[in-house]
Amino acid sequence: MRVVEVGAADPRVADYRDLTDMQWRQRMEPAQGLFLAEGEKVIQRALQAGYRPRSVLLTSRWLAGLSPALQDHDIEILLADEATLRSIVGFRLHRGALAAFERRAHPPISDVLDSARRLVVLENLVDHTNVGLVFRTAAALGVDAILVSPSCADPYYRRSVKTSMGAVLSLPWTVADPWPATLDSLRRDGWLLAALTPSEQAVELAAFVLAEAAGSKLALLLGSEGPGLTEQAAQRCSVSLRIPVTDRVDSLNVAAAAAIACYELAQVTPPQP
Predict the structure, then answer these.
(1) How many whole angstroms separate alpha carbon 42 and alpha carbon 102?
(2) Averaged pLDDT of the chain
(3) Does the N terminus or the C terminus of the chain have fewer Cβ atoms within 10 A?
(4) Which helix (H) or strand (E) element contains residue 118?
(5) Whole-number Å distance between alpha carbons of 212 and 106
(6) What are residue 150's phi and psi, to 5 degrees?
């Protein structure tokens, strides 16, 4: 690695410019084949997961902690003071360190599901924070893999990677394309598709887990914040599940609902394939 001091106009900081311009970043990052990891822990986890770094931008405070993990990589460490860093990214970066990494091509669904017994499927979630939180929960509670619909928020987006604490870089996942035809393929391959919904007509989650979940390859489907699952996805599910709540609210945040559902599923151990 090579440590170089940079200013806000330096062309080497192009990967890090204008992080507040979400629409531009969402176009630019996939086109350039990169994603950003924010903070020392997430950068370390990206490196541990084998992702290839392009460069690192940080203040001097974070250099000592990251140097051991970066010293064998042929990259530039771009060193900036706090004012310069803020000018580049567009806001005060509290964790003071960013790294640009090479994206990986989405693997085939068959590779992601190899030996999997517990699957979370995200349809059209639009909030990157919720996507990241679902990944973190799924990784913590023993979910084997995640599929995301083509219109789902990008798990590689900086906020998703950050809120997942790097789980999007270690938990197997891919894009379920074509959608919703992928759900038909899952059914043919023996997956039980379960829709999570606040509907009063749905089966209570805890009762279903006790009675049905242990022997199944189970895919838990979570829909977009607000609208929930589309009709096309819901119709392909064999069962609809709900988490009982008081009349003080009409539903749970999708990430909170995912956490409860994944915890319940973790109480039963599926048989090995």
Answers:
(1) 15
(2) 94
(3) C
(4) strand 118-122
(5) 32
(6) -60, -25
**What are the residue ranges of helices labelled H in the chain?**
22-32, 40-48, 63-70, 82-89, 109-112, 128-140, 158-163, 181-188, 205-211, 231-235, 254-266
pLDDT digits over 169-185, tens only?
Answer: 999 999 999 999 999 99
30-48 confidence digits (pLDDT tens): 999 999 999 999 999 999 9
DSSP string, 33-79: TEEEEESHHHHHHHHHTTPPEEEEEE-GGGHHHHHHHHTTS--EEEE
Q: Spell out the domains of the chain, with CATH numbers in brackets.
A: 2-102 (3.30.1330.30), 109-266 (3.40.1280.10)
Query: For 7, phi and psi rounded to 5 degrees?
Result: -105, 175
Does residue 176 contact residue 150 with C-beta atoms inside 8 Å?
yes
- Using alpha carbons only, how large is the chain's radius of gyration in Å? 20
Output the pLDDT for position 267: 83
The pTM assigned to this predicted structure is: 0.94
Count of CB atoms within 10 A of residue 263's CB?
A: 15
Angle at 129 between CA 117 and CA 116, to 5 degrees: 10
d(CA 163, CA 137): 10
- What percent of the chain shows pLDDT beyond 90? 85
Instruction: Tell the burial category of 163 from Cβ atoms under 10 Å away from its Cβ (0-12, 13-18, 19+).
Output: buried
Interatomic CA distance for residues 90 and 70, integer angstroms: 26
Coil/strand/helix, residue 121: strand
- Give residue 22's identity as a one-letter amino acid code: M
Lowest-pLDDT range, 34-43, 53-62, 244-253? 244-253
